[in-house]
Amino acid sequence: MPIDARQFAQQHPDAVKAGTDALQQVLARSATDRAFRTQLLQSPREALASFSGQPVDSISPDFNIAFVENTADATIVLPDYVDPDAELSESELETVAGGTDPLSAALSLTVAVVSLVAATFQLANAFRDHEKHH
Q1: Contact present, 121 and 50 (Cβ < 8 Å)
Q2: Chain-centre distance for alpha carbon 108
Q3: Which of 11, 26, 46, 109 has its CA at a distance of 20 to 30 angstroms from the CA of residue 65?
Q4: Which of 85, 132, 77, 87 minimizes the C-alpha distance to 110?
Q5: What is the largest CA-CA distance in the chain?
Q6: Exposed/middle/buried for 65, CB within 10 Å: 0-12, 13-18, 19+?
C-alpha cells in the first residue's frame, strides 16, 4: 500500500523533523569523513545503521536507498519508470484527480523518503528501549 506522504507528515511532524535532522547530519559527516562517505556509496544500509548506532537489520530490507557521488556539474535523479499501459494506483489517481503539480509530487516523495528513514530509526530506538526495560 503506497504511503500518503502529506498525511504521514501531518500526522508525524516529529518523525519528519527527526528524519530531516538525521539526513542533514549524515550529509554533513559525508562531506568531511572520507571513510563514511565511501561506506555510504558502497553499503548505504550498513553506513546508516552504523551512524545511528542500530543493527543493520533494524532497517527494513524492503527499504532501498542509494547515495551517489556528484561527478557532474549537475546530478539529476530520474523519476521511477512508469509503464504507460499499467493502471494507476489509488494514490496516483488521487494525485491526478487533485491536480497535483510535479513539484508538489516531488516534494511529497522527498518527505516520504525522509519520513521512512526517520520512522525506521525511531522504530528501532523504540524497540531497543523496550528490550532494555524488559
Answers
A1: no
A2: 11
A3: 11
A4: 77
A5: 52
A6: middle
Euclidean distance between the first and the last CA atom of the chain, given in angstroms as a whole number: 33
CA distances from 113 to 20, 23, 65, 97, 116 (A): 10, 10, 9, 23, 5
Quick one: which of 34, 30, 22 has its CA closest to 67? Answer: 30
Amino acid identity, position 91: S
pTM: 0.57
What secondary structure does DSSP assign to 5-66, as a single string?
HHHHHHH-HHHHHHHHHHHHHHHHHHHH-HHHHHHHHH-HHHHHHHHHT--GGGS-TT----
Condensed to tens digits (0 to 9), the pLDDT of residues 50-98 reads: 888 888 888 777 778 889 988 887 777 777 777 777 776 666 666 555 5
Set of cell numbers at residue 27: 550529509
